Amino acid sequence: MSYSTNTTIEALARELRGARRVLVTTHQKPDGDAMGSVLAVVRACEAVGVAAEGWVVDPCEGNLRAFEGPTKVTHVDPRAPRLPEGEFDLAVVVDTGAWTQLEVLAPWLRAMHSRVIGLDHHARGDEVAARRVVDVSCGSCTALLVELVQAMGVELRAGADDLGRHSIAEAIYMGLATDTGWFRFPNARAKEFVLAAHMLIAGVDKNAMYQQLEQSSRAERMLLQARALSSLEFVVAGRALGGGEIAIMRLRASDFTETGALLEETSGLVNEPMEVASVRASVLVVEDTAAGVVKLSFRSKPAGEDGRFVDVNELAARFGGGGHVHAAGAKRKASLDAVVDEVRATICA
Ligand SMILES: [Mn+2]
Known about the structure:
By secondary structure, the chain is α/β, with parallel strands linked by helices. The protein has helices at about 10-20, 30-45, 105-110, 140-150, 170-180, 190-200, 205-215, 220-230, 255-260, 310-315, 335-349, and strands at about 20-25, 50-55, 75, 90-95, 115-120, 130-135, 235, 245-250, 280-290, 295-300, 320-325, 325-330.
């Protein structure tokens, strides 16, 4: 069976209302939409008197945990995997339908299969949920969840404290804003703006959210970014990659000790050189002495007018890694400089 809708939102809403105890989960390393989706469904269940809890496999991107408030969410360290305990009569998988993104919980979800429902906006997925609604026309999974919340007969303001925080609307706005790059990406269409307006009317403080999510990094991270940018070089890509320029940046172990930045604070740095018009892809090479490896992150821009783009999944595969066509990673057991030389040679080839 293909990954497509096989039931209705109304039917899923009825299942949720009729449940006693619900577990809501999403893809590993949740982003704003994944976390917003989990919080929205848990809060909607609670609003109709159904016991519900979120189950999230870390690492958790950005400052998303600040939005949990009193909503019950269990965080699992993937290095110490564990499974839910006790009886759940329904499981909800949001913002994904792919086994590869649900590794930790997969044994539990497989055993639950007939009692797993899914709501997603991705084009590809597996038979994780027995009953599901998949709508790729939604800019975020939370955009789809607006329909679920309405079908459950729950107010968007449900869950809000005295200051209007921790509502369903806030969780939905978080997904909308982050998955559309704060309403800049092509998936921010009229529908997403209309939904966003409804969430603001329901009391969401968008400025506070922006500050919490996008302006809350440590000074150490900015100092690390300065180090990365000062190492920036532009390499002309060979014919195999379609020409143009590819940016390479490197971070040594000393860059971390001298700035006081943490390894996880490299998140997002690889995207910085993409601001340059001529850059088609970017590579960040990071020395991780604790793990004894050099980590590579690859990113590429979407296809240009000529329909060409750098397939970084393929590029990463040459370093024993992989991922997606526009975002991939790899690990290498070699010195930082040797890996950078290797990257340069591969790009020029
Ligand atoms: Mn999403």
